[in-house]
Structures are given as structure tokens and as C-alpha cells.
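Q: Predict the bound structure with magnesium ion.
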Amino acid sequence: MTYEVTAATREYLLRRHGLFIDGEWRRPQEEGELPVEDPATEQVISQMALGGKADIDAAVASARAALKGPWGSMTADERGRVLLKYADLIESRSQLFTELAVLDNGMPYVLGESTGMFCSMFLRYYAGWTSKISGMTLPSSGGGRRPQDLLAYTLREPIGVVGAITPWNYPFGMEILKIAPVLASGCTLVMKPAEQAPLAALLLAELAHEAGVPRGVFNVVTGLGETAGAALAAHSGVDKIAFTGSTEVGRLIVQAAAGNLKKVSLELGGKSPVVVFPDADLSKAIPGAAMAGFMLQGQNCVCGSRVFVHESIADAFTTGLAAAAKAMVVGPGFDRSAMLGPVISKVQRDRIERLLATAEKEGARRLCGGGRPHDRGWFIEPTVYADCTPDMTIVREEIFGPVIAVQTFNDHDLERIAEQANDTVYGLSGSIWTRDLETAHRMVRLIDAGQVGVNCHAAMDPSMPFGGNKQSGWGREFGQEGLDLYLKTKAVTVTW
Ligand code: NAI
Ligand code: MG
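A: Predicted complex:
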């Protein structure tokens, strides 16, 4: 390794990581390991255990048993305290979180630093919810009974064993946004993290137990999607699957869930529009669009990959956007000047390069980027295409790379502009850039997405529901709705 990481990180990487099942480290039953790679250097930095179906069975059995154990009888206050302590432990390991996120995912250092903060903030938010989970008293007449002869109410109960399958694009963050509400609700968890960035989930499980989460409540089985992931999705002992990843695998999850009709929530792909009106403040809209498209190298589901700009300002806007892209330093996350890191793997780099070649064949005009800025690591320069049309592959497909496709509009009819913006199978996020209140508020209603920003793109907060319309997913994570994903309602009628 060419970077000086702290001793704690070195020690963590050198461990022979196992599976975390029933509160202890175990070797996979069908043995096997995979190397963990740093995408900035292509070097092996650690290894992960390859868990399979038998390990998923063991983890699910442990999670089922734990529903009945001390976890099931904890008071709301006790559960809240465990989550608060968990948040404190994460805060005390912030340097380890930063370095592991940079190494495992390749993200820039400042984003690495955000991971620990995000986790503690998320846990504290849901710690507050533990004491606010409640049903209602209802005015049932229960077949003609008088109010004094009947009591009708609802209970909100944990849904049971949750299977969580997470992606690699924001290690720690992607895991905690499932862990926090699952634990707050009183459910138990079997997590299958992405094989490209498996280290975060293991550390999070270890710290949860240090914070007082009883054994079996939070299990981690690392392994491949097609084996461990598929086994979890199909398992009859799992009551609910929470998945974040590709729309393609989302469909497989739904099919696998059909066996026992487990509940499913899905956070899938996106192709989010960034709509820039002629009255927009370009000094904000240009850097805003650049960040929307290039943050995490475009490897995020809310990526603003389709920009729509009014013809009258298109030249000024695209010139500015290309200049902003060229000014972004691309390099390893430990190089503090780097604003963009590598993409996650050779597979993804090659896939993105194929999409760039297709863009040129289909007639998009490249304004900047497209090259490999370093000979080692999976780096791609941030790329802007102008003269894009609705049928082009780069306009239709989620790229998950640093690529922005710019289209123009010459319309003042907001409905027609929105039709262009909504011309996608996805509906996750979107942003509108204007100084006009009427344009802003009317457009907010016309954009078909789970999240819309006005003069900002994809602002996130634990309290703000997050999820997609159309093929971007089912359900909302974050906020109260994120807790509801893990609760079920029981209607109770008492007569005497
Ligand atoms: P993926 O959807 O294959 O992987 C996400 C998770 O699903 C991983 O943990 C993986 O092991 C698991 N998985 C894979 N196949 C499975 C199966 N048959 N059953 C159960 N679990 C399974 O995504 P991948 O291959 O990493 O990336 C491909 C594309 O997916 C990206 O280019 C991007 O377009 C999209 N993607 C979207 C994400 C989002 O945040 N919405 C995150 C990651 C990828
Ligand atoms: Mg895949």
C-alpha cells in the first residue's frame, strides 16, 4: 500500500475476516475467500469470506431465535440507548471509518470523512424513534357495541427477520440506512453487503455488539450476489427484504420473494433530470449540475445524469459545465486535492467506456473528459456530452459513471418540459434551477420522482423520505416512512 494509514486501519485490513453470525466470527461452511481490492491502486488490501446458502441458513436461524431473546423484551428506552451508544462508538472510530471507506470504495477523502458522521447522525435520529412507535385507539363499534363495552386499538410490531442486501457505492452509509431503522423497530437482521466493498458491514456489526446489541440480532454474511444474496432473498425464514442496487437485480429479488410472499422494499437505479431555466443563477446551477453528475464519480442512484437547459443559455451553461469538469482533480482519495476518485472496478470502468464509445457513435458531442487520467486504478475523467437526444443510449441507460448528457429545450410550457424530464423508466430524483417561485413550485409537482430539489440536487437528511417512483423502486427509506418499512400493524378489539 502506498498510503500511510493509521495502525487501527492496518490492523483491520490484515484480519482474516469471517462471517458474523450469532454474535461470533465464523468461517464459511463451504469455505472460500475473495480478495478485496483498492480501486485506486488495483492492489489487494484485504480479503473477505465467501459465505453461501448454508451460512445464510445459519444466520437466518440465529436472527429468528434472537426475536424471542432479550432483544424482544427490551423497552423502547433501552433500545434507544443501545443505538445512542452505537453512534458514540462510531464517532470514536471516525478515522478508521474514513480510511476504510476511501480504501474499499475509492471515494475522495472528504466523502470518506462524511461516512462516520452520517452513520452516527442516522443512528441518533432513529434512536429517537424507538420511544415514538405507537398505534392508535380507534372508534370501532365492533358489530354494534356501545363505546363503554369495547376497546379497539392498533399495535405496531416489528415485522420480524429482515434480510438486507446492500451495494458498494457508499460503504457504511448504505448499510446504516438499513441497520438503524431495523434496530429501532425491534427487528433482527441478516445483511449481505456488496462483494466489491464488504468491510464496512463487518465493522458495523462488531460495533453494534460492542454497543449492546444481543447476539443474533445483527448478522453479516459476505459473499456473492448470485449465491449468498439469492439465498437470502428466497429464504422462507425471512419476513422482509430491503434491497439497494440495480433495477435488474431488483426484479430478481421480487421473484425470489414470491415463495413466502415476504415484504420487499427496493431502492434501484435512476436517470435523474437537472432542469436549468433561463433565469437560473448560473454561478450556482453550473457547480450544482457538476456535483449532481459527478459526485462519487456518478456512482450514485440520484446522479443528475440528464441535464436539460434552455436554448438561450445553453452555450454559457455547457461551456461553464465543461470548465467545471476539467477543473475537477481526479485521483486517489488519499490525495487530499482529489475531488473525484476511481470507479469501483475494472468491470464498471470497461462498461462505462463502452457506453462512451456508443455515445460518440450515436452522435453525441463530447465537450470534455472521456479519457483515463492515470495508468493505474479505475479512473475516468468527468465527461460532458452536448447535442444529446432522447433516444441515445447515454440518455436512456443508467451509466453509474461520471458522465453528463446535456439536452436543450426551447419551450416555455412547463408541462412539455416536464414530459422531456420524465421521459425515462426511472423516477428517483431531480432538480430545478430557477429564481422564479411559480416555475419552481409548478415544476416540483410535474416531476415524476421521489425527490425533487429546487436550486439544489439530492439533498439528504435522516428525516427526509427517500425512494423512487416507477422502476426506481418500492417504498421510502429515511424518516418515519423508513421505520414503517420494518413495522406491521395489528388491529385489536377487546370486549367484555
Ligand atoms: P447489483 O444490483 O448486482 O448489486 C447490488 C447488491 O445485490 C450486491 O450486494 C450484490 O451482491 C447483490 N446481488 C447481485 N445479484 C443478486 C441476486 N441475484 N440476488 C440477490 N442479490 C444479488 O449491482 P452491481 O452489479 O454492483 O452494479 C451494476 C449496476 O447496478 C450499476 O452500474 C448501477 O447502474 C446499478 N447500481 C445501482 C445502485 C443504487 O444505488 N441504486 C447501487 C449499485 C449498483
Ligand atoms: Mg451485479
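A: Residues 7-268+472-493 form a domain with the Aldehyde Dehydrogenase; Chain A, domain 1 fold (CATH 3.40.605.10).
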